[in-house]
Amino acid sequence: MKNKKSQVTLKGKLKFMLQASIYLGIVLSFVDVLLYFFDIKSGLILSGYLILYFGIVLVLKNYSSATITGELISFATQYGSIQKVLLEQLELPYAILDNQGHVLWMNELFTEVSHKETDYHKSITSIFPSLTKEKMPREEDYTETEIEYESSHYIVKMKKVGVADSVKASAILDTPDSKGYLIALYLFDNTAIKLALKEIDDQSVAVGMIYLDNYDEALESVEEVRRSLLIALIDRKVNKYISAIDGICKKLEKDKYLIVLRKKALEALESNRFDILDDVKTVNIGNDMAVTISIGVGVDGLSYAQNYEFARNAIDLALGRGGDQAVVKNPENVIYYGGKSQQVEKNTKVKARVKAQALSEIISAKENVLIMGHRMPDVDCFGAAVGIYRVAKTLDKNAYIVLDDISNAIKPLVDMFMASPDYGDDMIIDNATAVEMAGSNSVLVVVDVNKPSITECPELLKICKNIVVFDHHRQSTENIENATLSYVEAYASSTCEMVSEIIQYIGEGLHISPLEADCMYSGIVVDTNNFMTKTGVRTFEAAAFLRRNGADVTRVRKLFREDAVEYKAKADAVSQAEIYRNVFAISVCTSQNLDSPTVIGAQAANELLNIKGVKASFIMTDYQNKIYVSARSIDEINVQIIMEKLGGGGHLGTAGCQLEDTTVDEAIDIIKNTLDEMLENGELKV
């Protein structure tokens, strides 16, 4: 016997109308009962009529109800067919999916868009790969997303539809609840709006600045009568380059230009990787020094003023990183192009004298001077800290060098200071002590680093309001922004060189001891690889100053002699090197039985540059659950931009990075893939 709940029955107004005759008969029965009180004959007649009436009603109900229900279902079916035709011809791509995302039905326009037949019942993801199950409605009843398909953009709207919803919505049919649901999918073509928005975005204004890096030096290298011609040729190059992309170029000063261009034109410059950087170097009328330029562009700001501010920040970054490069800054990130030339060393020391005077004034106004470098400090970092320590002591201030962990690279120097009676036990303090001392009456001097995240104690940067930065590394996107005084010179060989110059302008009362001179001289020797890299006139002048103050070359050499294990490890790294693409040397330095494996790795990278044909070297060192990468080059390859791709940084010829959750073999593959990608995109040339 069939369950009544499974049968289709009538409900609502139609059910009431069909049963109205029975209700009227019942009412008439009550009237008949009352009629018996007045006239028995009339009551009998009406009773007979009621019997006949109920008989006819019951017969009609039994025989006509099924017919009426069938006719109604037939009408509903025909009505549904009309709706289906309307849906099939609807001017909107529409499809029905099951709860797993498989196509059950699609209308004609959807088949045209998807190029599938109506009997296609595979997953919707096979048509639109970006439309994954995660984007379909699960807990929620409605989702909306955007996809791109065959150069068209669509807004996809998906809505859950219960299986029993259509019957529940009926006013005349009833059926028990059913579990499960379907998904109604609609495609709204958004291509025209996207194109319009893109066109508006392309027409938005980008502001830029162009600076000549070595204007004065280039002019000095050419005959005086030809200088105006050199300037005119450079002006012509710059103006022609900007005019070719429908931009505006206005010369502000002798070596500065303001440019205004559309964002679409900027994209063209980026696709060519700002080829004017190389083109301007071809200007030669007898000048011994090629002219280089720096470009800073601001785009996507909320206003023209913000774009201009972005451009100023970008040009500062370009100059701080050594020049000969373009920097594009928007609200989200900073993109670098070029940077293949070594920054020209400035012969004048006016800047050093001005910075020395400013440093003296800042320190004189405070009681305590905290000196901090980077984590795992090297000799240059500690030597520069010692130099600033001497400056603070000369100005009769309390000075402290913040060192939480004394690395093996500087341990010989630290031991010498700790053993000397001329220096107190509080010369070197840990991070916790430094945080307690820091306050409004303290000045923080940061040396050999300008990235807050890798300083010895980043918390001090938040506590101290007076911050001074001395560094010789090329700036990256992350830098110490709230510095009272910042002296960052990418052309300097080392921070010890910069501090040595500063010391000479502090005052006549400043005298450094032979131990301090040894320490600072060591920093220069290590960072220049024994005066073989990044060595300029001012480097030797700084070294000469330290020699006059008692620095001993022999003592310094003895300090950094290697033991047999370290020497063998370095030799093994060199001997196992792989020459990749005929110009890149890649090898691994073991960390077993080594106190400072990263230092040995850096030395091995320097040694690999002595091999003919090698333009850049990369040494991987597995140490403290990280892979330390030391990258070196002489002048043809900018290893800094390679390391920046991997989250590191440094100089054009000396750079590095740290890779976490990576094995040595994976690190080698990452280096190779990065080199391949940069060569393919034109970011590197060999």
Topology:
Blueprint lengths: L8 E2 L1 H7 L1 H19 L1 H49 L5 E5 L4 E4 L1 H7 L27 E8 L2 E11 L2 H4 L4 E2 L6 E9 L1 H12 L2 E8 L2 H6 L6 H17 L4 E6 L2 E7 H9 L4 H4 L13 E6 L5 H17 L4 E5 L4 E5 L11 H15 L3 E5 L6 H16 L3 E5 L8 H9 L8 E2 L1 H7 L4 E6 L10 H6 L2 E6 L13 E4 L6 H10 L9 H14 L9 H12 L4 H7 L4 H12 L2 E3 L3 E6 L7 H12 L7 E8 L2 E8 L5 H7 L3 E2 L3 E7 L3 H17 L6
Parallel strand pairs: 11-12, 14-15, 14-17, 15-16, 17-18, 18-19, 21-22
Antiparallel strand pairs: 1-6, 2-3, 2-7, 4-5, 5-7, 8-10, 8-11, 9-10, 12-13, 20-21, 22-23, 23-25, 24-25
What does this entry show, briefly?
This protein has about 675 residues and is of the alpha/beta class.
Please characterize this protein's 3D structure.
The chain is an alpha/beta fold and 686 residues long. 43% of the residues lie in helices and 20% in strands. It has a six-stranded mixed β-sheet. Strand 15 (398-402), helix 14 (411-419) and strand 16 (428-429) form a beta-alpha-beta unit. Helix 17 (495-504) runs antiparallel to helix 18 (514-527), helix 17 packs across helix 19 and helix 18 runs antiparallel to helix 19 (537-548). It is elongated and about 145 Å long. Mean pLDDT is 86; it is low at 1-6 and 169-178.
